[in-house]
Design a protein that fits this description.
Elements: H1 3-23, H2 30-35, H3 39-60, H4 66-85
């Protein structure tokens, strides 16, 4: 099963459980009934917080690519030489 399929099954199970509790099919106390209408919003906030943390952490730990930078510099020099051989002058910065 793919990751999307797994998340779909989890979402379906949680939705069915939420619907059963909210409709009164499952016996719960008043505290749970007071919290359940806001459960999807709370899950959405938790997912958003996790997503922001995950993106921020990935940006914070993003490594330098010195080899790739050197390769790009070499390709720029090669492109300038190629253009110069065709009579196009490229201004250097």
């Amino acid at each position: 099963m793919t990751k999307a399929g797994t998340w779909g099954v989890v979402a379906l199970v949680l939705s069915v459980a939420w619907g059963l509790v909210l409709s009164g099919q499952v016996a719960t106390n008043d505290t749970v009934m007071g919290i359940m209408p806001f459960a999807p919003f709370n899950l959405l906030c938790c997912f958003g917080s996790y997503s922001l943390f995950s993106i921020g952490y990935s940006l914070f730990t993003f490594g330098d690519a010195d080899d790739a930078a050197d390769e790009v510099k070499r390709e720029v020099i090669e492109a300038k030489r190629d253009l110069a051989s065709k009579g196009i002058i490229v201004a250097s910065e």
